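Exercise: predict the fold of this chain.
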Amino acid sequence: MSNVKDKLVQADDFGQVMDAFFEQLGTDLHILTKGVRIDEQPLLGALVPMAEQMAARPLHVKEMKLYRLREHRLSHGMLYFAGWLGVVLLFEDIGMGVLAMSQADLQGPTLYGRFRFLATERPARPLN
């Protein structure tokens, strides 16, 4: 996991980040299936404009599914747009993520974008 994070921080070619993830973890069904589904809504406001900028056109989100691997402080998942597919990785401990996008027919190039974010925990009970 540290190799994937190092590449995210240091790489100029974000395809290397996704390659490292899939080579090291992406085929490990034990890791991928033990994640917990998270609420995607807070991320839509950030990821959709980024995806639209990468695609150079407006996109309509059909579905987004993210899963959190608590022990790795990693969330990963897929975004489905009309005509486009996206894969996202979010590393909470370094506050960075990467979005990979390609046309659904896989005819064009894969586009990549790195982003920063602030991870916050929701309080266990309502604040006074």
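Check your answer against the key: The mean pLDDT is 84.
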